[in-house]
Design goal:
By secondary structure, the protein is mainly alpha-helical. The protein has six helices and three strands, in the order ααααααβββ. It starts with a helix and ends with a strand. The structure holds zinc ion (ZN).
Length: about 210
């Protein structure tokens, strides 16, 4: 008997043995159990994965929502800026100085670590410039001098307002052609802080944030 015959016989006897009915049903029962087990296992894993994904999605949504509703660390600066601007509209140097002092304190009080990374970079790049103009305004009661500093304060503050969401309300960036300078306002109506009552309605809105 050569090797070929031996193998043929072997495979015939194996297939005979395998084809006996009882073996076949044991095999199929076993196979269906394994398949069932695999299916249950797979379903459990998928259920857990689904729960995990749902949980992560909920956590992310909550995080985004929390960031949205939390007032920005820099929002007090905007309110303080508007106070300075309103004092200048009334040509009230003493009030302008007092509010510039508040603005200066608010700049110093910002918790930089609480800011988002991009907000932090923008604020750090403008912090000293904002403080410089606010300090000069707070130390002077000469309204002409205050208005000089208010022009650069406004230009720098607008850079901040553009990069960082300080408010949900509209911010109007308004240009005074006489002074060749800008200011920020919560109203679209023109009330010029550079000339006060002399030229109260001179100026035009050039850009609006949060339209
Ligand atoms: Zn000065």
């Amino acid at each position: 008997m050569n090797d070929g015959d031996r193998q043929r016989r072997l495979s015939v006897s194996q297939s005979k043995a395998f084809r006996s009915d009882s073996d076949c049903s044991i095999y199929s029962t076993w196979l269906s159990r394994v398949l069932n087990y695999c299916l249950t296992f797979y379903q459990n894993i998928m259920k857990k994965l689904f729960l995990l994904v749902a949980f992560i999605a909920a956590a992310i949504t909550q995080q985004l929502f929390a960031q949205d509703t939390k007032p920005n660390e820099l929002t007090p600066l905007l309110n303080s800026y508007y106070d300075i601007k309103n004092a200048l509209i009334k040509s009230n140097g003493a009030d302008a100085a007092a509010h510039a002092g508040e603005f200066l304190k608010a700049v110093a009080a910002v918790d930089i670590k609480a800011l988002a990374a991009t907000d932090m970079n923008t604020f750090i790049s403008l912090q000293d410039k904002l403080a410089f103009d606010a300090r000069h305004m707070s130390e002077s009661k000469d309204i002409a001098h205050q208005r000089e500093h208010f022009a650069t304060l406004s230009a720098n503050f607008f850079k901040l307002a553009k990069a960082v969401k300080l408010t949900d309300k509209a911010v109007y960036y308004t240009y005074c052609p006489m002074k060749k300078s800008y200011w920020l306002s919560a109203d679209a109506g023109i009330r010029n802080p550079y000339f006060g009552s002399q030229m109260l309605t001179c100026g035009k809105v050039t850009e609006t944030l949060n339209k």
